[in-house]
């Protein structure tokens, strides 16, 4: 550049998907969720909270896999991957540090059992586990803590979400819930049924 012509400004959208040394997980299928679909207008209102309201519905209707004593396991309605489970305390509490000792133990034990059940039913190659604490950290429902248990398979992140804006989930949520619930062990250590 000799300083006589203005710099060329390129539209960043033309670079989507171009390798640049940064690994990205593109999930455009989740835009409905990110945009607020089914989110409570008042996040602190337990009546509007999807995790609180799920507790009062049937397991089949709410996609609950297992009910423990102080926590329960539910399928994610907007899964990152097939079989994506959430482990939630019954109490409407936002922060991990607010959990009681009993809740910490049961959330941990239900997470371990969920991994065992998913391995038995679906044979994943690995898992992503985690809690997003606060909206800035990616929590869609930040007011009610939940632990993600996401099974992963080789090749499960393919071209479909990027090119076709489509996520291939090879099994219906209701079928996944039924299979996981049927495989859930009787004595899972959570104190629930």
TrEMBL record:
A motif (Histidine triad motif) lies at residues 144-148. The keyword DNA damage does not apply. Residues 50-159 form the HIT domain. It comes from the Bacteria. Substrate binds at residues 76, 148. InterPro entries: AP-4-A_phosphorylase, FHIT, HIT-like, HIT-like_sf. The keyword Amino-acid biosynthesis does not apply. PROSITE patterns: HIT_2. It comes from Brachybacterium alimentarium. One of its GO terms (molecular function) is hydrolase activity. Signal peptide: none annotated. Residues 1-23 are annotated as: Disordered. Keywords: Hydrolase, Nucleotide-binding. This is HIT family hydrolase. Pfam families: HIT. SUPFAM superfamilies: HIT-like. The active site is at 146 (tele-amp-histidine intermediate).
